[in-house]
User: Fold MBL fold metallo-hydrolase from Halorutilus salinus.
Amino acid sequence: MHQIADGISMVDTRFLEHEGHTAVFIVEGRETALVETGHSTTRERVKNELAREGTVPDYIVPTHLHLDHAGATGYLADEYDATVVCHPSARDYLVEPEKVESLVESVRRAVGELAEPYGDAKSVEGEVRTLDDGETLDLGGRELEAGHFHGHAPHQFVLYDDETRSLFTADEAGMWMDGTLYQTSPPPNFDLETNLDSLDRLARYDAKRLVYTHFGARGDGEDDVREALEEYRDVLTDWVDRVETEYDRLGDEEEVVDEILAEAEFPDDWDETAVRETVRMDVRGVMIYLS
Ligand SMILES: [Zn+2]
Assistant:
């Protein structure tokens, strides 16, 4: 467990044994929220880390339905008898068993060879609360304000902690890993214009740090935050242009993926399958957006 601000700490779920890929966060007021859950397959690690600190969350708060953020929701809510807090559009997909199943199936199809490590999900049986845009979760002495942001997914909110001026960006501001900002444009709902608008809206928070689920805190002041958001504008725009250009040239989605992988420079210690499947997903997301 690693502290990133007063009353906010982070646990690395070590997805695929990779450090610095996926995080969950503990936010403490008089009550405690677990923001993000990680995959179902890494929940034991999260539980062990919480146990080590004697932390028992009152709320489980996945920012959106993608299984790297919400996969362990049902399991952890059971474990801690915690209230699940989510975006209104995410509710049924966390609660209704058939919808949970359809969510898991669609993720399985999308992630290809990563289906096993991505795991599954379990429907939530206890209390569920939804947060509208601008609504807050009161932890006692600290509030988390939800903001609906739909460029990455239609069932996503970000969370703002006024106390430490920390903005949990979910996946709306990209992935900040090993000091590099990467695009995330998964199928089926990625939308470039909405995501670019989001960056302007995110800049209006008075944040001095961004907190990325992938991975960790970045920034120490408004200028850093503005810069990080502007950087993502370029990363995302270049990415969509690149996929479009390569597709025009090659005319085949798999070839676009191969081409991008051949030229990409990913850190050596990254899981090759994970890199390939992630690039494939992000290409697919752009192709659906463009079509
Ligand atoms: Zn996501």
